[in-house]
Specification:
With 155 residues, the chain is α+β, with helices and mostly antiparallel strands. The protein has helices spanning 11-30, 33-38, 56-67, 133-139, and strands at residues 40-47, 70-82, 85-96, 98-99, 102-103, 109-120, 123-131. It comes from Pseudonocardia charpentierae.
Length: 155
């Protein structure tokens, strides 16, 4: 673990950062790509999302192309801010055509996620996403099977 010394933002800055983080998730819920691209730095990145996501505005566009058809709503459970970071714990209710290739049309998925957002000069510079994606797959009926070599043979 790396601990770095930073200057402590004032209460107004922490409050503004919290509002930005919540607004970011609201814009995701609304599928508002234009609003999202206005809230990020040119070098924005996200860890814990689709692999090889480009930086900046192109990354937001690729993210939404990857998500595909979805109706979703994030409900904010907690927002905590310290230094240049805001942590948001949220619950998502969504219906998506498919998730990781598992069909999902007509199935409402409910899952939680934690987003740690680094805010720089009033914009989201980086997001670390940690979500219950395995929970979503199980809700869609996915099953984990052992490799064929470990399965009992059938008579």
């Amino acid at each position: 673990m790396t601990i770095t010394a930073t200057t402590t933002p004032d209460t107004d800055t922490l409050t503004a950062n919290k509002r930005l983080a919540v607004a970011f998730l609201d814009a995701i819920s609304d599928g508002d790509v234009a609003a999202l691209t206005a809230m990020i730095t040119p070098t924005w990145t996200m860890e814990g999302g689709p692999p090889d996501l480009p930086a900046g505005q192109e990354g937001i566009r690729v993210l939404f192309a990857h998500i595909g058809g979805v109706e979703q709503r994030w409900t904010i459970d907690d927002v905590i801010a310290e230094g240049d970071k805001v942590v948001v714990r949220a619950t998502n209710h969504c219906e998506q055509d498919s998730f990781f290739g598992v069909p999902g049309r007509g199935i409402v998925q409910v899952f939680t996620a934690t987003f740690t957002m680094q805010i720089v000069d009033g914009l989201v510079a980086r997001i670390w996403r940690n979500a219950a994606d395995l929970q979503r797959l199980f809700q869609l009926g996915a099953r984990i099977l052992p490799p064929a070599t470990m399965r009992p043979s059938m008579p």
